[in-house]
UniProtKB/TrEMBL annotation:
EC category name: translocase
Top-level taxon in the UniProt lineage: Bacteria
Reported function: NDH-1 shuttles electrons from NADH, via FMN and iron-sulfur (Fe-S) centers, to quinones in the respiratory chain.
GO CC field: NADH dehydrogenase complex; plasma membrane
Compartments where found: Cell membrane; Membrane
E.C. number: 7.1.1.-
Catalytic activity: a quinone + NADH + 5 H(+)(in) = a quinol + NAD(+) + 4 H(+)(out)
Species name: Acrocarpospora macrocephala
PANTHER family: NADH-UBIQUINONE OXIDOREDUCTASE CHAIN 3
Protein name: NADH-quinone oxidoreductase subunit
Membrane topology annotation: Multi-pass membrane protein
Transmembrane helix as UniProt keyword: yes
Classification lineage: Bacteria, Bacillati, Actinomycetota, Actinomycetes, Streptosporangiales
Length: 123
């Protein structure tokens, strides 16, 4: 296979082989597995609790807000570790210190805003 479209043919053949292996595995699994459905096996499993009622449940928005705050602090921690390693290098001390205080000031402003909006109150 030479030429411009030769490499596309190789990719297409490899893609076809991959799809055939995947489909063949699923087909062999379907042919060899035991198939004895019962009413108990076909019920929905909810963490060991029998499903009762409708499938819709209301959750409070504060859970999402706490999740976003966790993500902010996780990103903060991700940036703090590399900063600590660069801070020790020669020539980066004052510059990285000022940059990190600016970054932490933005984080502190976000926390202050969340505190003033009473987002952090768990009531």
């Amino acid at each position: 296979m030479t030429g411009y479209f030769g490499s596309y043919v190789v990719v297409a053949v490899l893609l076809g082989v991959g799809v055939a292996i995947f489909a063949g595995g699923l087909l062999v699994n379907r042919l060899l597995r035991p198939d004895r459905p019962t009413a108990e096996k076909l019920t929905t499993y909810e963490c060991g609790v029998d499903p009762v009622g409708e499938g819709w449940a209301q959750s409070q928005i504060r859970y999402y807000v706490f999740t976003y705050l966790y993500v902010v602090f996780a990103v903060d921690a991700v940036f703090l570790f590399p900063w600590a390693t660069v801070f020790a290098d020669a020539g980066f001390g004052l510059t990285t210190l000022v940059e990190m205080f600016v970054f932490l000031a933005f984080i502190a402003l976000g926390i202050l805003y969340a505190w003033r909006k009473r987002v952090l109150a768990w009531t």
